[in-house]
Specification:
With 245 residues, the protein is mainly beta. It is 5% helix and 38% strand. The strands form 5 sheets. Strands 1-2-3-4 form a 4-stranded antiparallel β-sheet, with no helix packed on it. A 4-stranded antiparallel β-sheet has the order 6-7-8-9, with no helix packed on it. It has 2 helices and 18 strands. It folds into 2 domains: 1-152, Distorted Sandwich (Beta-galactosidase, Chain A, domain 5); 153-245, no CATH class. This is Galactose mutarotase.
Length: 245
């Protein structure tokens, strides 16, 4: 069921996940009451731009795009509910959203495609399955996908990111020049905006809400975007709200 644009997966025990059909954006993930995601209070939910925060769906292009909006169109348009929410025997709850090519997407990117996005809420984790169907007969297309995730943390300076050691990275939006990450543990102490390539399957972030560690496990994706605009730049992003040091 969709109520006020939201699809809610409720696992009981105050564990839930909300997905806004606008961009199939995951706007809330609560584990036993505790919110794990950051969504700006200044965010627009009316469709005039993408939702600022949560987990947004970047497709078919990451970054500035001369064919359409930055980070693609998928985060800016309404998706459909394809299936669910449905409870599985083990108590997990899932829903599948879909986005089909239409006149608008064709005006920017002239391919027939269908995206299926299955989100499963488990006791302590979220599982995402993404399917991209190519409806163009004998005609391949290239695309980029990113789940742009903004996490809520008590103090970002205390978070330790593990898993990027020895990966090469480039600065987002800058030249293709790459550098080697020589730190086993990355701490954020200022602005950072990087794309790490060929990242191992698992990256962890410690000192999340309640002091827990978040494990991000990926399959068939190779790059990781690490972004924190820090105070000055954050204050220039109008829908992010005021940030103090
Ligand atoms: O403001 P947006 O279009 O949502 O982009 C937010 C951020 O997305 C990614 O993390 C990019 O690497 C950043 O350069 C960008 O600032």
């Amino acid at each position: 069921m969709i109520y006020e644009n939201q699809i809610v997966l409720n696992r009981g025990d105050y564990t839930s996940c909300s997905i806004n059909v606008l961009g199939a954006t995951v706007t809330s993930w609560r584990i036993h009451h505790q919110e794990q995601l950051f969504v700006s209070r200044e965010s627009h939910f009316s469709g005039i731009s993408h939702i600022r925060g949560g987990i947004s769906f970047v497709f078919p292009h990451f970054g500035e795009w001369n064919m359409g909006p930055r980070h693609g169109f998928a985060r800016e348009i309404a998706w459909s509910l394809d299936k669910g929410p449905e409870k599985l025997e083990n108590g997990d709850v899932f829903a599948t959203l879909s986005l089909d090519h239409n006149d608008y997407t064709h005006s920017l990117w002239n391919y027939k495609f269908k995206l299926l996005y299955k989100i499963t809420l488990c006791e302590q984790k979220l599982i995402f399955n993404i399917f991209v169907e190519n409806g163009c007969e004998n005609f391949p297309f290239e695309f980029e996908i990113l789940q742009h995730s903004l996490f809520k943390v008590p103090d970002v300076r205390k978070c330790e990111i593990i898993g990027l050691h020895k990966c090469r990275f480039r600065k987002a939006g800058k030249s293709d020049e790459t550098q080697l990450e020589d730190r086993q543990i990355i701490k954020i102490a200022g602005k950072i905006d990087r794309i790490y390539a060929k990242v191992p399957r698992e990256v962890t972030v410690s000192n999340m809400m309640n002091g827990g560690t978040l494990k991000i496990v990926r399959k068939n994706t190779y790059d990781v975007n690490l972004w924190n605009p820090w105070v000055h730049e954050a204050n220039e992003i109008r829908d992010l709200g005021t940030v103090s040091g």
